[in-house]
Amino acid sequence: MATYGEIRSALEGAREATWQMDPEASDNAPVRVYALGVPNEDQLVPAGDVPEIDLTALLEAHPTGNQLLAARRAVLGLPTGGVEVDEQLLARVTPSAGADEAGLPTTVDWRNRWGTNWVTQVKDQGGCGSCVAFGTAAVIESRVRIEHAVWCVRSEGDSHDGQGIPCAQGSWPNTYFDWIKSNGIADPACWPYRQDNAPYRPTPDRAGRTVKIDGYTETGSVADQKKWLDTVGPLTCCIEVPDDFFSYRTGVYRKTVSHIAGLHCIAVVGYNDSEGCWIIKNSWGTGWGENGFGRIAYGQIRIDEFTKQGVLSTNPDPWTKRRLHNGNFYEGGNGAGHRNFEMLSSGGSQIQHWWREGTGGFGWAKASVFGLDAAVCPTLTSTTFNRNFECVYTTGAGRLHHWWLDQNTGKWNDGGIFGPPDATGVPGFIQSNYGAPGNLEVVTRLSGGRLQHWYRAGSWHPGPVFGANVAFAGATLVQSTYGEQGNLELVCTLGSGQLQHWWRDDDRADKPWHAGSLFGSGIASPAVMIQGQYGMATERDHGNFELCVAAGGRVQHWWRHSGTGVWTCSAVFGHDVATVTGLVEGSFGFNLEVVVLRTDGQLQHYWRGGDGWHEGPVIGRA
């Protein structure tokens, strides 16, 4: 293998030395060699063999919910998918560094596009020939972030080991994408990335915790690839790796040596015409390149010789979105855009299931009716039990009633009655990460003004009673990103009219509940709370808590800063509001979506965009 001194000499002798290696590397030291993973060219498609893609037809078939992306497409005369685009959005997506003759920006970088990061952090494939697992997973992670506004870390081990590929063996992008199209790709807790050729044994609930894709697209020409990067997102591609590529530290890489170590798969997250390069994400850890990223000059190391693959449509699993919804309202994976809204209401003793198509006219429609004993609005979620919808509500007799919808049959099934004899009000209800499938967790108010935790691990079990002077519990229970296990957190309404934050220390064996901040005043209704994506610059950061509650016939929006822990009321909106029933942060560009019950018994939708809160349609009678 080459030494750093040999590479240094090659760089010094190159006419176009546009990149650097580690200046402190010893001349006599051998260059560190990283694992590759594309065995040969057999299944790589020459770029010239692929016709120009019909991007208009593709985008019509797979419309976006991302307003910024829709605006970018509108600038180029491409379909926007029914998403409203205003002058403010158009101005925001106009390239600040200029555009080429085709109207494309001269620079695209999804690590910081429109002020937001859409790319997960760099990982390390270690000694396995699994680069394709990392390149394909990186594209899917970014596409979920772009289309569904949520960080979504996928397990390279799931797609690699799921195919039965040994650590030392490589593969090709189309093989991986074909497998993921048929099987989905799970999260690391379902099956982690490992390098010991262990038998593939994912958790039993894998079917309910995999991101699905509708397929993938081969892009051939550089023009098509730049248009894809501008209007869709990152691409996977394959390159050859000369010996000097291992030593790359920074700059725009151009080959300086002749010996080729092999073929490798990476993700392309952008381009820069002024520098004449692609911006790439590698899988050799953050010690290589520019913190794991790099820049490769156009046409170098065969980067433009083969097709680059992109994914249009992703369907994230409920486990990915588990913190982004609460109350009677949920954004699921049904519908052409995989972002239908689902909602439950109870105007009387029965439960009405509603849904809203995630593309097109966005009209609400009624589905099935079930139950006969509801006293309050149900709390709805979707679980890793095959993505089934599940709900819990308080009965007129003061018990808790569980129902679940079988995604295979579309029918609601009675999950049984459980809980204390004196439950009151709207309960909190989630699936946690205790076990796989995870336990169901409920916190309900008791008639004496205290809270009680219940959990289902095979059967329902009572947990501790805590709190005092609680007027309303509400659909505020979340398992947050705080702590190694993830703390349970909730906010209840006190008899004093204040809101009280509670959290459980899930890293302690005794799991004690702790009283947190008091905030707000004059409140006499239950709140709804989520942990959203605001504050998450990367997938490893903590998102802010978002809370909506009715007071004085209007809705107060509160949020808790993920750094300071301070609660702030950011807006008051709406009219004739009796109570907030549901809160979602969905696929429409990080918008908050709220459903309220009005004083006239009607349900109404509100939503928050970049310019504030908007009054949506009246859905119907609860």
From TrEMBL:
GO biological process, one term: proteolysis
Disulfide bond listed as a keyword: yes
One Pfam family recorded for the sequence: Peptidase_C1
Domain Peptidase C1A papain C-terminal: 104-311
Keyword field contains Disulfide bond: yes
CDD domains with a match to the protein in the record: Peptidase_C1A
GO MF annotations in UniProt: cysteine-type peptidase activity
Gene3D superfamilies assigned to the protein according to its UniProt record, in alphabetical order: Cysteine proteinases, Fucose-specific lectin
Keywords: Disulfide bond
Similarity-based family: Belongs to the peptidase C1 family.
Protein name per UniProt: Peptidase C1A
UniProt organism field: Streptomyces alboniger
